Amino acid sequence: MAKPGKKKKVLFVLEIVVLLLFIGGLYVYGQISSRLDKIQQPELKRETIPVNPEAPKMTGYKTYVLFGIDTRGEGSDLSAQNSDTMIIVSVNNDTGEVRMVSVYRDTFLDIGNGTYTKANAAYAYGGPEQAIAMLNTNLDLDISDYATADFSALTEVVDDLGGLDIPLSYAEIEHMNNYCQETSKVTGKSYTPVEKPEPKPEDEEAIVDTYHLNGVQVTSYCRIRYTASMDMGRTERQRKVLGMLFDKAKIAGLSSIFKIMDDVFPMVQTSLSKQDILGLIPTVIGYDFSDSTGFPAKYKFSNIKGSIIVPTDLASNVTELHKFLYNDQDYTPSSEVLEKSNKILEIVGGEGKLDEAATSTTQDDTTNTDDNTFVWSGNSSSTDNSYYDNNSGSTDYDNGGGTDYDYGGSSDYDNGGGSDYDNGGDSDYDNGGGSDYDNDSGSDYDNGGGDDGGFSDGAAESGNDDNEE
């Protein structure tokens, strides 16, 4: 039988341990709380964000969206950029299972008020409110919270966690090295090019080895769209990297976590309050990234004006989306989704007018926002399917022959001068001379560096591949 004095000593030691843990917890809480003040938390006008009345209420889940923005360096305005990365995150509150879905940036959707264009343009037009509204109304979702960051934030996180080991193909090495030049310039961080294996493999898309990459390299890896998988491969890389970073962060020391907060939080904008984030921290440790995919799952391509991804059809794709995000086997698309689904196919001329493959896999399919925008006028007095430019009149884009938005003839978007959007010069908005949107430097929207890989000095354009994450 233990002596009374020994029991008191044991209890005293336990009390000291508990007290130290409590003080340590308060210290960590205080350190995290003070760093959360560095995050940009603009007011999100939730009352302006619609949800389809017939959309299901997914109890037991929380849905967020992550936006990736190319701010083109210091001093740029986040709200003026396209969200070239859009990742819907579904969290099962009971199991901690996390699923991610990337919405392809060139997906042809209604971004608001019957304006059909590439999905990434919604953020440029109306910030996070309009981008979330687009996702809610096209996909029958109920998203109320978001986080936005540019690729400089990704570079910082990767470096603060000591880099990542990523398997690469020959094609990925080649294009990643090319992107690293721009990424390094914008972020101010260095890198060492990955040496390409010799001889060049017959299958350039096959994995050749696993490489330890730093922040500049991982960010550049996440931007690749040149490979055969195009944007689908790009978004898959992004989701893979997010999962790897999450797993690595969960086992990182406090010093690493605090450094990430110091370096990255000033680059992040979110609708979550400080209390929301603090409340999430204990549960995030138990989260598990179980699966991810891209949206739409079934698609074809069109070249209305610049290559777009067309869901075939939207309703069936949204059905599959709900099965994946929420395991909802009984979901039925709302009338709003059905209407948009029909409208999309009508605008592109029907599924029979679509292509199985994109006409080009190049990085820089530069197109102007207005040239890529279609406004549906349901109350047109002349016809039930009149498209018009809401900046001018009801007959814009009309070549006078009644063939507005004709996809089969030689006069699409023709103003009668023999070259689409030609103002009399050799290259202005000419889609036939190989120099579309040329700024006279020999490369489309090039900032003078001769590299068409991105970071042009222009403003945000819908579907502009220079403006990408």
From TrEMBL:
Entry keyword annotation includes Transmembrane:
yes
Biased composition range(s): Gly residues = 447-456
Q: Where is this region: Disordered?
A: 355-469
Q: Where is the Cell envelope-related transcriptional attenuator domain?
A: 82-250
> Which UniProt keywords are listed?
Membrane, Transmembrane, Transmembrane helix
Low complexity bias spans: 359-422
The record's PANTHER family line, in alphabetical order, gives: POLYISOPRENYL-TEICHOIC ACID--PEPTIDOGLYCAN TEICHOIC ACID TRANSFERASE TAGU
What this protein is called in its record is LytR family transcriptional regulator
What organism is the protein native to?
Blautia wexlerae
